[in-house]
Design goal:
The structure is a single chain. By secondary structure, the protein is an alpha/beta fold. The protein has 2 domains: 219 residues, Quinone Oxidoreductase, Chain A, domain 1 (Alpha-Beta Complex), CATH 3.90.180; 128 residues, 3-Layer(aba) Sandwich (Rossmann fold). The protein is 27% helix and 25% strand. It has 10 helices and 18 strands. The strands form 3 sheets. Strands 3, 5, 6, 9, 10, 17 and 18 form a 7-stranded mixed beta sheet that branches. Strands 13-12-11-14-15-16 form a 6-stranded parallel beta sheet, with helices on both faces. A 5-stranded mixed beta sheet has the order 1-2-7-8-4, with no helix packed on it. Helix 3 packs across helix 4, helix 3 crosses helix 9 and helix 4 packs parallel to helix 5. The protein is globular. The two termini are 22 Å apart.
Length: 369
């Protein structure tokens, strides 16, 4: 094997166009694989890094949602071979701690190396011009090649289109799993999704697949609400036009069983809490800005009616089993990934992709290589 040189967009300053830089990508270490990327989704988490709303070390290559083909493997890797098709998991879990062995990699006790891929706290990218390290935002999938632990490259069937598979790497799993895993919604449960972007739309799909009813989509974008109906919502509410809580209680007089907070807004989270019925739970997915706080009334919001709230990281999923399951749903026509793709970009258009995402709209953008 030999190190490779590639041109990638590098985040060097918040809210500033990302220059294309020549970066060397190292060989995989013994327990790692190097993957040739086929596609990477344009994720809101990366937008937070790009626009500075989340403190981010720099220089950094962004990207946490993607799929590709294994190019080479480390000497100790036995689960993958060159040519395997994989979805990249941004969990980067160690695979050996108690939580990982329980099938709960989201709770991994190991480090969370969003600034450098290796669990040895070293990176795999080097700026060719300066010779200095370039950091990774998780797996850093906005690059022609990535190096990740073998546990974070989930093998998939080769007849699955990689452009669609890329979306499963973050937004689909996060949104879908919030309903099916974290909320554990059952047929006939009522579900409200607050925020119908790339993640929330997949919560709508998760609710549809499990047989929830009603499924209430809440968003300030009419385009997003139209997409939500296409993907399974039975009712829509636009907070700019009506009072959310009053409208929800018209649909479900006693409140919903599950509210999914799929947008990084404290106001949205409070909406979710306030529309819960007895025994209902708010699942928080969206990541608000650094320092944002929410104030709750423990008697009214929690104690009365035994309501609760919890976070859901990565859909509370085990990617090793969740990714293949979602692919089977897609191949069976039960999960709509085609409608989610609404924009396509080349790698040198990554800055443009963030600018478009920041303006809102429906669906998901995709960078293809």
């Amino acid at each position: 094997m030999a190190s490779l040189v590639m041109e990638v967009p590098v985040l060097v300053a918040a809210n500033t166009p990302m220059p294309m830089k020549k970066v060397e990508v190292a060989d995989p270490a013994p327990h790692e694989v190097r993957v040739t990327m086929a596609a990477s989704g344009v994720c809101h988490s990366c937008l937070h890094a790009y626009d500075g709303s989340h403190e981010t070390p720099m220089p950094m290559i962004l990207g946490d949602e993607g799929a590709g083909v294994v190019e080479s493997v480390g000497s100790a890797v036995t689960t993958l071979v060159p040519g395997d098709h994989v979805i990249i998991s941004w969990l980067l879990n160690c695979g050996t701690c108690a939580q990982c062995l329980r099938g709960k990699p989201a709770y991994c006790y190991g480090p969370s190396p969003f600034g450098a891929i290796g669990f040895d706290n070293t990176g795999r990218f080097t700026d060719v011009e300066t010779g200095k390290p370039v950091l990774h935002y998780g797996p850093a999938t906005y690059a022609p090649y990535v190096v990740v632990p073998a546990t974070s490259a989930i093998k998939i069937r080769k007849d699955m289109p990689l452009e669609k598979a890329a979306l499963i790497g973050c937004s689909v799993t996060t949104g879908f799993g919030a309903v099916t895993n974290a909320a554990a919604a059952r047929p006939g449960d009522s579900v409200a999704v607050v925020g119908c972007g790339g993640v929330g739309l997949n919560s709508i799909q998760g609710a549809r697949v499990v047989g929830a009813h009603p499924i209430i989509a809440i968003d300030t974008s009419d385009a997003a609400l139209e997409m939500a109906v296409k993907l399974g919502a039975t009712h829509t509410i636009n907070p700019k036009k009506v009072d959310v809580e009053k409208e929800v209680f018209k649909i479900v007089p006693h409140g919903v069983d599950h509210a999914i907070g799929a947008v990084g807004s404290v106001a949205a989270f409070m909406n979710g809490l306030n529309i819960l019925g007895p025994g209902g739970t708010l699942i928080i997915l969206g990541a608000p800005g650094n320092g944002d706080k929410m104030t709750i009334d423990p008697i009214f919001n929690i104690l009365r009616g035994e309501r609760g709230m919890r976070g859901s990281k990565y859909g509370s999923a085990n990617p090793a089993t969740e990714f293949p399951m979602l692919i089977e749903l897609y191949m069976a026509g039960k999960l709509d990934l085609d409608s989610l793709l609404t924009a396509n970009y080349s790698l040198d258009e990554a800055t443009k992709a963030f600018e478009v995402l920041a303006k809102g709209g429906a669906g998901r953008g995709l960078i293809t290589f």
